[in-house]
Write a structure and sequence with these properties.
single chain; 234 residues; alpha+beta; Muramoyl-pentapeptide Carboxypeptidase, domain 2; 5-stranded mixed beta sheet; two-stranded antiparallel ribbon; 6 helices; binds zinc ion
Length: 234
């Protein structure tokens, strides 16, 4: 999960007053709903392509929670849990993360990556609270194929490392600054954070599992279901 991007507040300074533009002043985000438009975009710029993660990062374990009822909405939001996607440079960076972790005896388990915009809207309809779900008016890193929710596993048995909380735990225990945890938990979180940041990912202060890639190529919000992406993702 991601709470959404922080809205930049624009201050218009005039000689007599300061006018603050609230988030409501921003229009609904533009989304790519048409697979042909998406295909055209990645033909012009191959870095826009959405890659099925296991194509480039074999050996990752999928536990795509939104394909099950085992998530904070208690609702199944994806039709299948067999595939998920990231933009090409993000998947390549994750490949490097995995190589380094594997050398240390650890692997990656993915809870969520690309999330179609329609699913973000559905989450909003179900929960409607910006503390827990991204406000659809902004679109999120997950909607752009730039964000990933993941944890570490032990390569020998695929067991998750202890991170102090589970996925989508909305208490302050899940925050990076929360230090009142056993040293092994802190070490596990640090290993994930340092490895992800080494290869260009950014952490998110309130969710130890959420990492994102900078939106440095005007990646748009996609509203294409997994089936449409699968056609071109391998
Ligand atoms: Zn997330």
């Amino acid at each position: 999960m991601q709470f959404g991007y922080k809205i930049k507040i624009i201050y218009l300074v005039s000689s007599v007053s300061i006018i603050q533009l609230a988030p409501a002043a921003f229009a609904q985000v533009h989304t790519v709903k048409n697979a042909k438009v998406y295909r055209q975009q990645f033909r012009v710029d191959s870095m826009q392509k959405m890659i099925e993660i296991k194509t480039l990062v074999p050996g990752v374990v999928y536990d795509l929670r939104y394909a099950t009822k085992n998530n904070f909405t208690n609702t199944r939001l994806y039709k299948t849990g067999n595939s998920t996607f990231l933009r090409l440079p993000v998947a390549l960076a994750l490949q490097r993360v995995q190589i380094e972790l594997n050398q240390k005896g650890f692997g990656i388990k993915i809870y969520d990556a690309y999330r179609p915009y329609a699913v973000t809207k559905k989450m909003w309809d179900l929960i409607g609270d910006e503390r827990y779900v991204a406000n659809p008016s902004k679109g999120s890193g997950h909607n752009r194929g730039l964000a990933i929710d993941l944890t570490l596993i032990n390569l020998s048995n695929d067991n998750e490392l202890d991170m102090g909380t589970g996925f989508d735990n909305f208490t302050d225990t899940a925050h990076h600054v929360f230090r009142n945890l056993p040293s092994t938990v802190l070490q596990n979180r640090t290993l994930l954070k340092e490895t992800m940041e080494k290869y260009g990912f950014r952490s998110f202060e309130t969710e130890w599992w959420h990492y994102s890639w900078p939106n440095d190529r005007n990646y748009e919000v996609l509203d294409l279901d997994f089936k449409k992406l699968e056609k071109y993702a391998y």
